[in-house]
Write a structure and sequence with these properties.
5% strand, mainly alpha
Amino acid sequence: MIFLQLTYKPKENFVYRSNGVVQVCELTNAVQPGALFNHPFYLGIIFLNILILVLFSECLDEILVYFRFMLIISLFTFFINIILYPEGTTIIFQISNDFPILGGFKITFETIVSTIIIILRLTLLFLIFGTINLIINPDELIQVLVKLKIPHSIVFIITLSLNFFPIILKDLEKIREIQQCKGLELEKGNFFSKFKNNVKLILPLLTNSLERSIQNAEALEARAFHVKGKREFYRTIRFSISDYFIIFFIISYLIFQIYLSFQGFGKYIIYPTLTEVFLGGLEYYVLLFSLISNFLIIGLLYLGDKIEK
């Protein structure tokens, strides 16, 4: 089943073998600029950096699954945003006659550009979520959150929800196989018949999920999860010298990006009229440094993995 490709599977790869804290820092370094900058060139460099990390992680085929979902969401977002938010001064198409409910209708160049930027940001979020789900071991993610002094109850809720995702997908695959053995045609017919037949999978899937939640609650009670005290892990995260250097470099670069955002770098004014898309000379050097720093971090990950071996 295609959905099973969206879950974590260990690979013999230096990115997968790297420290969980370093992985989280690297992905944070990739996603933070998307919240600070809105210029298309900056977003393009962020997209390129994440794609480079995916290529070195050898999980491009799995990531492409996310792009299939993103294509549908992008088309929906594009048309809805153009219809419901026709702001801007550069009018491309306009009908003065009143439409039912909507009234006047127009399409502006500013709205199209704004929609493209929104779609690019959504794509980056999907890409980040997929990369986190694919390359970070859920057990190491728990330790990372605990080291950040997040309460154990919140950590448990987060990790349980992440672990439930692949479990539910596996249950869905089993239910599909059982229903097909009983003669239920899930892949034949038109769109509506396929949809109607696949809806029949929801009830047994929901029942299994409720039963599993009860079992988890009983297991937590039996292990006295509510008791407060110092908790220990069977396996702990080990740090090498290269890990410390990578973490220090990433944190320093994150602070540098925040400073750049306060200085007005990466800001793109869309409304009421688009500003010039081309950047100043200094900003191109900033983008180049961002690209080089990403290769530097990946190179340090590879070097640290070779030293550990």
